[in-house]
Amino acid sequence: MSRNDRRNILLNLVGEGIWGYQSSLVALATVLTVFLREQGASARMVGVLAAVEGGLFLPQVLGLYIFASRTRRKRDLMAWHFAVVIPFLFVAGGFCFLGPHMTAPLLRWSVLAAHACFSIAIGVVIAAWTDWLAHIFPLRLRGIAMGSGMGLAALCGMGGSLTAGWAIRTFAGPHVYGWLYVAAGSVAWVAMVFFCFMIDPMADGGEAFVRPKTRELISHFVASLRERNFRCLLIGRMLTMPGYVAVPFITMYYTSSAGGGIAPGVVVSCGAAMTGCAAASNLALGLLGDRRGHRIGMQFGAAAQIAALLVVLLTRGEIGCVLAYAGVGLCFGSSWVSYYNMLFETCPHDNRAAHITAGNLLVGAAGLAAALVAGPLAGAFGLRLLFALILAASAAAFLWFLFAVEEPRRGDVNVAAPR
User: Fold this and answer.
1) Which residues touch 72 (CB under 8 Å, ≥6 apart)?
2) pLDDT band at residue 407, thresholds of 50, 70 and 90?
3) Lowest mean pLDDT: which of 140-149, 172-181, 385-394?
């Protein structure tokens, strides 16, 4: 391992860890869900909340144009976070402070809109950010480097969940959520400072700014979708998306009488099990994937999703809540390390960012559709039917990953060396 590799891995670890802490301070699936429910949000509105998470990948096609220059990509990525992404956290916090002077519907929709803008701004950057990391870390270190970074982010997220849970239990009113958003924005700013010091091997390439042509991007999208194993990977991933958008409904369930009527602050603290298990699985699946391939991580993630849904259907109370979030966390561990490494390794051409975007657009569309259906379905027929249907989709995903998806590292799927 070179000196630059060690430096980049260390800085990525610290930056991801700090970012993970701030993410859990205002986690959409727990903190924001609890806030909206306190302000009278219905199951349909929780569905809109899930749609924000499910549709996170859709805006990233814009990033192919905004972050077109490889030599300036690091600078542009940092500037985007400082100038666009992070300010929305402070905007959401400002609405919370204005809560006493707003009606409940106006307050919850304003905070949801600000958080949605934050998520959309992150969505724009996803493909460019992951492609940038793929260039920084060599193939032999990519799984462990990204896995350890996301693992530490999730581990530090335990602290964020416990902090947010304590704050919600201790203080009343929307002001506490305002302070959580302000704290999250401040911590996010610190996290990005560490990423600024990472060494970018592309920065000295002397490449001029070249905006991609739409026709060329479409050509790359089509070439990606012609790859059979890539299509199989996306089908399996899309089958798991209902499980991801179900997490706010899990929070809603355990705060209801049917789930044990757990206090909101306690439920948020139980969310530490989600981030803690995500930390363990990120690290384990990153290391295992580097040695045996990342398909096994996708299989593990689908199995963990099945386990989490079974817990929700069969239990109630705090123990069930912790176990359900633990299963969700184990599933989340595969959603970053295993999925993105398989995206990298199934690219059949030289434009990896376009390949990532093609996959995430389809996955994001599936997640958005699932979220928009889930809210009305839960409102009309109840949460148990919703969870049962998602369980069936998760079981289908597990079987699909087991029998239909091939391991790219043992085949000739990666026929080009993506730049």
Assistant:
1) 203, 209
2) confident
3) 140-149
Q: Do 66 and 76 touch, CB atoms closer than 8 A?
A: yes
In this predicted model, which residue has the larger pLDDT, 364 or 326?
A: 326
CA distance linking residue 13 with residue 19, whole number of Å: 10
Q: State which amino acid sits at residue 346.
A: T
Q: What share of the chain is helix, strand, coil (3-state, %, to 5)?
A: 80, 0, 20
Virtual torsion, Cα 195, 199, 201, 206, nearest 10 deg: 90
Compute the average pLDDT of residues 152-158.
Answer: 87
- Which of 391, 273, 282 is closest to 326 using CA atoms? 273
**pLDDT the model gives residue 10:** 93
- This prediction's pTM: 0.80
Give Cα 168 distance to the centre of its chain.
Answer: 24
Residue 93 to residue 24: CA distance in whole angstroms: 15
Conformational region of residue 147, where left means phi above 0, alpha means psi within -120 to 50, and beta covers everything else: alpha
Is the pLDDT at 412 greater than 50? The verdict is: no
pLDDT of the residue at 414: 42
CA distance linking residue 188 with residue 258, whole number of Å: 36
| Other CB atoms within 10 Å distance of the CB of residue 200 | 19
Yes or no: say if 194 and 81 are a contact pair by the CB < 8 Å rule.
Answer: no
pLDDT of 80 reads: 95
329-378 pLDDT tens trace: 888 877 777 887 888 888 888 787 788 888 888 888 888 888 889 888 98
Check the CA dihedral 166-167-171-173 and report its sign: negative
Which single residue is written with the structure tokens 């999730």?
A: 154
Closest residue by Cα to residue 34 from 241, 311, 256, 201: 256
Contacts (Cβ under 8 Å, ≥6 apart) of 255: 34, 37, 261, 262, 263, 264, 267
DSSP 96-143: HHTGGGS-HHHHHHHHHHHHHHHHHHHHHHHHHHHHHHHHHS-HHHHH
Average pLDDT, the chain: 86
Distances (CA, A) of 219 to 100, 112, 184, 213: 52, 36, 40, 10
Structurally, what CATH architecture does the domain formed by 3-410 represent?
A: Up-down Bundle (1.20)
Number of helices followed by number of strands (H, E) in the chain: 18, 0
49 closest CA partner among 33, 27, 26: 33
